[in-house]
Structure formats: structure tokens, C-alpha cells
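A further point concerns the way the authors explain their paired sequence and structure data. Nothing conveys this as quickly as seeing an actual entry. An entry of this sort, consisting of the sequence and the corresponding C-alpha cells, reads as follows:
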Amino acid sequence: MEFFALLAIIIPNMAKLLYQGHASLRITSDAGKVLYVDPYAGEGYEPTADLVLVTHEHYDHNATHIVPMSQRTIVVHSKDAFSDGIYRDFDYFGFEVHAVPAGNKNHDPSECVGYLIKVDGVLIYVAGDTDYMPFMNRLSRRGIDYAFLPIDGIYNMGPEEASRVAGIIQPKHLIPYHMKPGSLFDIRQDMRVSYERAMLVKPGDEIRLEHEE
């Protein structure tokens, strides 16, 4: 018994992230709480959601009807996250969430957000549909562990701009996503990203989220 108690002290809490494809993510905390971001694509929607985050109301980001919910499930839409000119903070089920600006000529910034999500000591930046925005210059101070940046180059920034943005915000890991309209994943688009700590994460891949000092 003492041995297992010691292991519990030595082994840090670790959340897990499932990349479902396109812009859809599922994050499970060490305590087993489940967060979905922009549900729409791929598989892995079996666990009941505790929290659902929607960056904007385009159909390929807001398919909340496919997410199993309970009476306790909380759904945060972009209109909840950004209202009266204020980007809101939320703290539910061990997920600390801070809404941040997002948008471009194809996505009205008044109707879109990105999210900074902290869980089990790990900070994740989910950019949503966006190009470079000036507030990103301040993100390097936040110590982002994992950044999800869109790279489709049609409706959002492309691989080159995403590489430049990664250089500005300095995440410990960059995970390109939202790669090609109508497709969960595009390896050729992914390979055009140039950032030393870019990760190749494919739909259906689940990674353990670790905080690095």
C-alpha cells in the first residue's frame, strides 16, 4: 500500500487529448472530466460531456447535437464567451477557460473566439478559425504547452502564416489543424508547417498532455 501511495505522489496528473479531425478535440482530465471543443468531425463521441466549447457558429464547429450530454453538461458558445466587448473566463469541472480574440475576413471577430484552456497544469491554446491577430504578441508570456493553429490557407491562415504565428507565441508544442475544407486531415498541408516543435497528430490519435518548464 505504501508503494502505491508513493507512486501517486511521484507520477503527476496527466490529461489526455484526442484529436478527432478537422477542428474537433476531446480533452479528458486526470479526474475523468470530459471537454469537447468544436464538435463535428471524426469519432470518439461516446463519453458524456461535462463541458463543450464552441469557437463560432459555422456548421463544422458547432455540431453539439452529436455530443452525449447530461443535465450537468455546460455548453459555452462564442456569444457566451465574448459579450459586451469582454472576453469571458470560465472555471468548470477542473477546466480553466479564457476566451481570446479570433477572426479574419471570413470570420467576423465579433462572433468568433479562441480558447486558452488549462487542465492539470497544462495550458492549451485552441485558436479557432483565425488569421494572425495583434493580441497573439502577448501569448508568449503565457507559457503555452500546446497550440492548435488552423492551416487551411483558404478560410484561415495557411502553413506559412501559422509557422510565423508559432514563432511569435512560442508554444512548447504546435499541432496544426483545420487543414483542408471537407477533409479531416491533409498530410501534405501539415508537412508545409515549419516550427521546431511541431507535432504530427492525426485524427484518432490520443496524446498525453504534459507540462514542461
The longest strand covers residues 69-76. The chain has four helices and 14 strands. The chain has one domain: 15-198. The domain at 15-198 is CATH 3.60.15.10 (Metallo-beta-lactamase; Chain A).
